Amino acid sequence: MNNENMSDNKRREFLKASALVAGGVMLNQFAFAGGHSSTDDTIKIALIGCGDRGTGAAFQALSTKANLKLVAMADAFEDRLNSSYEKLAERFKDKVDVPQDRRFVGFDGYAKAIALADVVLLVTPPGFRPMHFEEAVKQGKHVFMEKPVAVDSPGVRKVLAAAELAKQKKLNVVVGLQRRYQTNYRETIKRIQDGAIGDIVGGQVYWNSGGVWVKKREPNQTEMEYQMRNWYYFNWLCGDHIVEQHVHNIDIANWVKNAYPVSVQGTGSRAWRTGKDYGEIYDNHAVELTYADGSVIYSQCRHYEGTANRVDETFQGTKGRTYLSAGHNGVLWDHKGKEIFSHNTKGNANPYQTEHDELFDAITKGQYKFWDAERAAKSCFTAIIGRYATYSGQVIKWDEALKADNNLMPDRLAWDASPKVLPDANGLYPIPTPGKTKVV
Question: Would you say the pTM of this structure is higher than 0.85?
Fold first, then answer.
């Protein structure tokens, strides 16, 4: 048997073994229906969430060197699914095989799509991520999922439990905190953790920008549909921009510290985005992340138009300091200002593509290499308790907040169901008030 055939057999056995529960019992026949065939080395993928980011994730997966085929798609909205399908089918004609009966529309289509694949891409609004990830792991599938992975304490607990089960089943899980897959971050932080600038005693992380899109309310929309379409501005779907965007920078703080904060305090408000189109979220947050060794990382994010933008990270150590940015070199200096290390980003791979390249390379080779879910859940929770701190004005302790029973999800998922946060007679949503709002 030549090496190529050996590799194919190893891949098939790996995918088959990954569909077993930890005790060695095969999942029921339906759960593995459409799974990896013992006579076909094609890796079947399903896309759950067909918006722009979901379409982008599928594009990147299908652009890898692996032998992939998109076989199922699911989205709450038919128009988004059809638009995504058309774009992907046009670009990847031979790799997209999703007939009408494998396009699932509605709140419950995700489980049916997951059942048809070996690997699933979870790219819906983040409020749905815990239940989708839980289902994917239950069915024994490898996973790529976008950040953030949860928006509240119960969701984080669900992801952590599923992450542990994924480890037992040896399911590869990659999370879209793409700086973890970016060369300048990897090279610079490796040197930091090897002691190049000593112990990290402080730092600052930022995501300051002009904000994102807004979806106007359309005639005849139910409240559920409006919030789903305008999902960025509702916490049960987005988690606020400190969670949805700033989690990238907060994750870098935790990576550099190689730890998670024990408590968080801070302040925030709605200063610029004050109209009814902006739901319930804040437009600025400033928090302090306190770690067990007493060090404090300062975190700031805001969405103001016409102000200075800043999206980067800087840290101070006992022997020097560092500057990190997605679009620039990673740099280390000693305390006298002498440059210790500078990574040249010329020729660096696109980290969004690298995530998928490395995931599918591992699956193709039958390797278990990626268990991102646990650390992603903890960095997302760091951002979540930052929101708890700014909304309440209280010092939030990690261990206490993780136990909180503050589920933001609606009691029922249907187009005629009501989310938990509703507008008043003027169309304005209740806004958290520090000193009055209780979040934990």
Answer: yes
Instruction: Please report, for residues 269, 297, 298, 396, the alpha-carbon distance to residue 266 in angstroms, rounded to integers and kept in the order given.
Output: 11, 12, 9, 9
- Other C-beta atoms closer than 10 Å to the C-beta of 218 total 9
In whole angstroms, what is the distance from residue 97 CA to residue 81 CA?
14
Tokens 């904000």 appear where?
211
User: Strand (E) positions, 270-309?
Assistant: 284-290, 296-303
Determine contact, residues 200/295, Cβ cutoff 8 Å. yes
Closest listed residue to residue 265, CA positions, set 378, 401, 431, 388: 388
Q: Give the Å distances, CA to CA, from 109 to 49, 79, 97, 270.
A: 10, 15, 17, 36
Q: Comparing C-alpha atoms, which of 162, 167, 234, 150 is closest to residue 423?
A: 234
Distance, in Å, from the CA atom of 212 to the CA atom of 232, rounded to the nearest integer, reads 8
Give residue-wise pLDDT tens across range 23-39.
Answer: 333 333 223 223 343 34
The pLDDT confidence band at residue 329, using thresholds 50, 70 and 90, is confident
Pairing relation of β-strands 200-209 and 263-269? unpaired
The greatest distance separating any two alpha carbons of the chain, rounded to the nearest whole angstrom, comes to 73
